[in-house]
Structure formats: structure tokens, C-alpha cells
Amino acid sequence: MAQEQNTTERLPMGALLALAMTGFICIVTETLPAGLLPQISSGLEVSSAWAGQMVTVYALGSLLAAIPLTIATQGWRRRNVLLLTIVGFLLFNSITAWSSDYVVTLIARFFAGASAGLAWSLLAGYARRMVSPNLQGRAMAVAMVGTPIALSLGVPLGTWLGALVGWRTAFGLMSILTLVLIVWVVVKVPDYPGQTASERIGLRQVLATPGVRPVLAVVLTWMLAHNMLYTYIAPFVASAGLGNEVDRVLLVFGLAALAGIWMTGRLVDRHLRNAVLASLATFAAISLLFGFFSQSVAVVYAGIFVWGLSFGGAATLLQTALADAAGEGADVALSMNVVVWNSAIAAGALTGGVLLDQVGVGVFPWVLLALLLAGLWIVFSARTHGFPKGQRQSGAAVVGH
User: Fold this and answer.
1) Among candidates 75, 64, 81, which has minimal Cα distance to 22?
2) Which domains does the chain have, with CATH numbers?
3) Which parts of the chain span the membrane according to its record (predicted)?
4) Which terminus of the chain, N or C, has fewer Cβ atoms within 10 Å?
């Protein structure tokens, strides 16, 4: 298919880091209210539980908007779509910063989430399109680095800033950051055409493409296991006497995840299947270890570090596998990934909450182990499509639009 590719044999770091900054803003915008609930509830005159729904409606916006917005913008030039998502953050974070009405704030949060849903379906394909096929995995690793940075550093920093200067100013600072990013994208990020009507592949056809469903199934099992433990990490580590060190535990996880992204960037193009198998097997082994030794401080810290290491490259590995499997339908497939990923976050929180109340935190490692073994079985089975053996084909199409 003839396209304006302008691919390069070197990583265009300025452009890729702009994509990483977009991911960073997505994550911090989503999670910022969690650390500022007392101030937000006081400012909007609602309970902390109602203030917490700012996170819920954001996730709902991503879930509901990712697929329809991705399909609706398939024909648009790619940089215009990217700028649309960033302007969305600018507008809706600004409304959140200024609003004194709870309902208006929730509406703004919903549409900020919609912007994130479109962004997540766009970033991986955009990164792939900038480079030659043999560098696509590395390019995606750089573009995804904003996520662990946001989780490990951005959220605590945002919480600290909110406590220091107020929650409204914290959201205002996010708007200023998006203004900087808009200029960055215009100057550094190359533009590409969208797909013509004849090139577009329908949602049902993409889902039926060999390999797409196995990858999405692995996304569901892996992320469900991850989010169940990550959401309830505080009660889990409390059994080892680390209830007052949750921030330190999460910092260890975040730093290990950064290292995991670096490792994945080195491996994804040559050893994608083996890297996924190794990551799942490592997480399964850590779950088994937690099942027997969750009261040991040393085991918990070591396990958290290795878990972070195995998780850091998950987004890169799974999105690379999904885009490879989907071919020309990559953007639509990646929008499905947004839906499955966010569903796993919600299901992990819900399932974990029920298990915590009904059985106790001690059952978590065994539930995780079952999910991860299911994921491993799917990867083993998808040796032809989804997670094929051998090196990624260097002749693969650069399909991200």
C-alpha cells in the first residue's frame, strides 16, 4: 500500500518522547484524583466516595469512546488526531481545574477519558509508523515509557503538588503541560495520511483476523492478574508489616518497570514470543512465592521488584503482537486493546474487592497463578498466529495509522 512513510533506520527520539509524554499525561490525568480525594471532596462539597468517581467516569470514557472514535478518525491525518487528543486533555483538565459544580466536573472527566481512549489506540501504531519494521518494537518501547514513569513518579509528584498548591492548581499544571506538548508535537512529530475508505477494515473483520483474539485473551488474563494485585497492594503487603511503606513498595515496582521497558526494547523485535512467555512465567513464579512467603519482608520486596521487571514491557509486547497480527487493521485492534485493558482494570478491582472481603488477601497469589497459567497456555497455543515462533518478520508492513 502506497503511503507517506518517511520511516528511518534510527529512532526519532524527539518524536517518540512526545508520544511518551502523551501517555504520561493520560496516566497522571486518570490517577491524579486518587491522591487528592480529601481536597477535592472539600472543594466540590461531596464525600470522598463521590469524589473517587472522578476516576471511574474517566475509565468509562476510555472504555466507551476508544473504538468508535478510532473508527471515526481513521481517514484523518494522523497528527491531527494526535493533536485532537491532546487538546482534549487541555480543555477538560482546564474545566476540571475551574469547575465548582460536581456534575460538570464528572462530565469533563468523562470526556478527558474519551481523549485518553483515542490516544491509547493511536500511540503504538504511530510509533511503529515512524521507523523501519526492524525497529518497531524499540520505537514502541520508547513511546510506552511514559506509563511506568507516570505510575512510579508522576502520581506521587502530582499528589505532592496538589497538597502543596491545591488540587485545582495541580489540574491547571496538567493543562500547561499539554500546551507544551502541543508545540512539541507540531515541531517534532511527523504527519501521515489516514486510511482511504477502500483501505479500512471493519471491526468484525479485524476481530476475526487470525491471532487477534489470542492476543486480546492474553491481555485480559495478564492484566486481570496484575490489576488485582496492584489495586490491593496495600492490604497485601500489610501482612508482611509493610502497611506504612506502600509508597516505597510502589516506587520499587515503578523503577523495576522502567528497567523492564528497557529490557523489552532490546528483545521485542527478535524474541517477542519468548519475552511474553518469560514475563508470564516470571509473574507466575512470583505469585507462587507470594503464596507461601507473603509474610516475609525480604520476599515481598524482591517479589515486587521482579514483578515490576516482568510487567514493564507488557504494553510494548502485547501491542506489538496485536498490531503484527492485525496488519492493516492495527488501529482498530489497538482500540479493542484499550477496551480489554480497561475492562481488566475494572474487573481486577471488582474481583479483588470481593475476594478481599469474602476470603482474605491470602487467596490472591493462587488466583493470580491460575490466571497466569491460563495466559501461558494461550501463548503456547498461538504459535502460528498471535505469538509466532522466531524473529518478527522484518518485511512486515508498517501499519500504524
Assistant:
1) 81
2) 13-188 (1.20.1250.20), 203-381 (1.20.1250.20)
3) 12-37, 49-69, 81-100, 106-127, 139-161, 167-187, 207-229, 249-268, 275-293, 299-322, 334-356, 362-382
4) N
